[in-house]
């Protein structure tokens, strides 16, 4: 009886909260929206986001892995960081065809996606982003970038590239949690390191902050595209509650939603560029996010490790020529970029982002 009474009181409180909150959604307020979707760029970057899942460090660092070809042929890795304790991996390199430094972050291991998804249903906004009043973010995603071995290695490589090329164009990409880390990286480079020409393009990224954070982010990193695919479950997480606009998570713009139309052999993919709200109700929010399969393949490219549930790495004696291992077993492989790989950015480069 006492348990039933407690449950009833909880339901009354929840009902009252819903009633007073209203159904009005908060909008992302941004001064600029520069991001223009480029299909070719997206299909190139998805291959970089796929390659970072490779476990053979020697092949990945030398860019000779099975996924290190096609549209990414000729890419030069200058930094490879592996955080063993947290099963995180990222690389920085020089893409001559893009005339940019590319940063790619590895996403969640597929064997843990189910548990990860269940956990994200209950995650709350639990940390304030420094220097942005009212902006709250997801502690786990923030921590993965800011408080592991990943960030120092990334920044070191970008600074070395800037020393050689000047204010070089930088593109951050990643899939799933790797997309969340890429977003924090782009913001970090702009806010804390005064980087210019920073672009972010992610695949199947979860929400990482509230509407206030989304507004700050959109102002500071306007050249951002989030690709979502069909019924991919992860972009729906953590959940968005329109009746609790001050407390809920909120995507930042701009989303491009991929979905199929037709039937049988006449199915083809639509690429819909969504509005500047970050939560366009006619895009991925218009469907139920219930598919892990849609999460693991974008543009026909697999975004997962070579073996199911693998968080292991493979290395041979050659890796010692380029890196070291800290007391926790984390690895950093490093080398200087080629002086002739990129040209210095011009004013026209700055105006041509995602165009």
From TrEMBL:
Superkingdom, natural source: Eukaryota
GO function terms (MF aspect): hydrolase activity
Region (Disordered): 322-355
Basic and acidic residues bias (residue ranges): 346-355
Domain Fungal lipase-type residue range list: 102-240
Keyword Acetylation: no
One Pfam family this sequence matches: Lipase_3
Protein name: Fungal lipase-type domain-containing protein
Keyword field: Hydrolase, Signal
InterPro entries linked to this entry: AB_hydrolase_fold, Fungal_lipase-type, Sec_MonoDiacylglyc_Lipase
GO BP annotation list: lipid metabolic process
Residues of the signal peptide: 1-23
Lineage: Eukaryota, Viridiplantae, Streptophyta, Embryophyta, Tracheophyta
